[in-house]
Design a protein that fits this description.
The complex is a heterodimer.
Chain A lengths: L1 E4 H17 L3 H13 L3 H20 L9 E9 L2 E4 L3 H15 L24 E7 L4 E8 L1 H4 L3 E5 L4 H16 L7 E9 L1 H11 L11 H15 L14 E11 L4 E8 L6 E4 L1
Parallel strand pairs in A: 1-3, 2-4, 7-8
Antiparallel strand pairs in A: 2-5, 5-10, 6-9, 7-9
Helix pairs in contact in A: 1-4, 2-3, 6-8
Chain B lengths: L2 E5 L4 H6 L5 E10 L2 H12 L12 E3 L27 H6 L4 E4 L5 H10 L2 E4 L5 H5 L2 E8 L8 E15 L6 H9 L4
Parallel strand pairs in B: 1-2, 2-3, 3-4, 4-5
Antiparallel strand pairs in B: 2-7, 5-7, 6-7
Classes of the chains: A alpha/beta, B alpha/beta.
């Protein structure tokens, strides 16, 4: 049994919240750079260049890439040989979010009551925390700030076996088509297949964490991803929705088994500021 | 399509000269407002009360900036998605608002309102927030400080880069752009 003080988790979450909001992962930068080379629309190219220049400004000035520094999505994998001491795990994560968002002047975007009062909590907490117990004696933290504009374009649909893979593809393409310029394209699309109503939504979010350019481990679904990407980029939505060839940088599918009566499908949309980072303690 | 240097306050002739697809560098005074502030503004109008700023000829930027660091005029401040303000826009157009800045398309109702009231809608590049902040030269909260990022701010901008999406003639750059690059399967 390894003893681990949750203060270490607070520190890691704080660092991740700052780092992910200021610096974009290399795979996302590379995908944007290569889309600039392929984009046919002059306006689309101009927009992609503005987006790329903005990364440099953010890094240099230590400013968030986007003012929407998101809801703090935190995936924790806690080794079953770890004994956490020094306080409650969720409190430690929230404290890390509180400190990081304050110290780096990141925007606080959470309202306490989602419908009636909608009063800002003032410190970007609570984080949305998903904890899994896994073998081992380490703690893995994945931190993903998720902006509201793209999240709003996401959807879960309970489809049936009769809909088949074509039905899934049509749903994903239609969801992107209806989103147009709203989610800040070029986007990344996470698709969750199977499980249950809530599990497939989780899968779609997890799929967004995959490195762009890494193939799907299942060759059949890898082909589905490629076909979806081609169809989505043929929609003509383009950078910011103002027309062009670059609507999406990647489509990532994640799947799990499901009930014989069900075929849950979730589409989670991610803007071009596709932020995520991880730390292993 | 042309490149236009604009300085507020804008008169009707300047607005009418703008065409969908034009690139604009906007300078002068604009106001920020997003979801919560719009609810409050419309409530004030319905109650017949004065607004915190004069809508006549005004431009509203849909933005909730990151908090400024000490000594910094404006932290990252890119546009938010505009459709959420669609329910409020026609009433504000009727009361003198001349332009809005955001990202993403507007509803047919808002587009009709722009034609009827001689207004335009500009797109700023979403997510390019640190770059946009450098065009903001002055910023002051003028109402609803308690809303934090959603407070109404008076900004003075210098050559803020924008694209005209909807002009007073009813054209829409989203529709035109997508139609040009769409490939039928």
């Amino acid at each position: 049994m390894r003893e681990l003080n949750v203060a270490r988790i607070t520190e890691a979450v704080k660092d991740l919240s700052i780092r992910t909001n200021l610096y974009l992962p290399d795979d996302v930068k590379k995908a944007l750079q290569s889309s600039l080379e392929k984009e046919e629309s002059p306006l689309g190219r101009e927009i992609l260049q503005v987006i790329l220049d903005n990364h440099d400004i953010a890094e240099r000035e230590k400013m968030p890439i986007c003012q929407d520094t998101g809801v703090a999505i935190v995936f924790l994998e806690v080794g079953q040989e770890v004994h956490l001491i020094g306080g409650a795990l969720d409190d430690a994560v929230n404290e890390g979010v509180r400190q990081g968002y304050k110290e780096a002047y990141l925007r606080k975007s959470m309202v306490a009551d989602p419908v009636i009062k909608r009063k800002n909590t003032g410190d970007n907490t609570p984080a949305i925390i998903y904890t899994r117990i896994v073998p081992g004696e380490k703690v893995k933290i994945v931190f993903a700030p998720k902006g509201g504009g793209a999240e709003n374009m996401s959807e879960v649909r309970m489809m049936t076996a009769a809909d088949g893979i074509e039905g899934v593809k049509n749903f994903v393409v239609d969801r992107v088509s209806r989103s147009g310029g709203n989610p800040c394209p070029p986007i990344v699309i996470g698709v969750g297949l199977g499980g249950s109503f809530e599990r497939c939504a989780m899968l779609a979010k997890e799929a967004l964490m995959r490195t762009i350019g890494e193939p799907n481990p299942d060759p059949v679904y890898d082909e589905v991803e490629k076909d979806l990407l081609r169809r989505i980029n043929n929609l003509g939505i383009g950078p910011q929705g103002l027309g062009g060839r670059t609507t999406a940088l990647a489509v990532h599918i994640k799947m799990v088994p499901c009930h014989i009566a069900s075929m849950p499908v979730a589409v989670n949309i991610q803007c071009h500021v596709s932020r995520h980072g991880e730390t292993i303690i | 399509m042309k490149t236009v240097e604009l300085r507020t306050p804008l008169d009707d002739k300047q607005i009418a000269n703008l065409e969908s697809g034009d690139k604009v560098f906007l300078s002068g005074e604009i106001y920020t407002a997003r979801d919560a502030a719009h609810k409050k503004l419309v409530a004030l109008i319905e109650e017949g009360k004065d607004l915190p700023f004069d809508l006549q000829g005004a431009i509203i930027y849909y933005v909730g900036p990151a908090p400024s660091k000490p000594g910094q005029v404006m932290n990252s401040a890119g546009p938010t998605t505009s459709y959420r303000m669609d329910p409020f826009a026609p009433l504000l157009h009727e009361r003198g608002l001349k332009g809005t800045i955001g990202k993403g398309p507007r509803s047919m109702k808002v587009r009709d309102s722009m034609v009827k009231n001689g207004c335009v809608y500009f797109a700023a590049v979403g997510g390019a927030a640190a770059g946009i902040a450098s065009t903001v030269k002055e910023a002051k909260v003028i109402a609803y400080d308690e809303l934090g990022p959603e407070a109404i701010r008076r900004l003075v901008v210098e050559r803020m880069p924008l694209f005209v999406v909807n002009d007073t003639g009813g054209n829409d750059l989203f529709e035109a752009g997508v139609a040009e690059y769409r490939c039928e399967e």
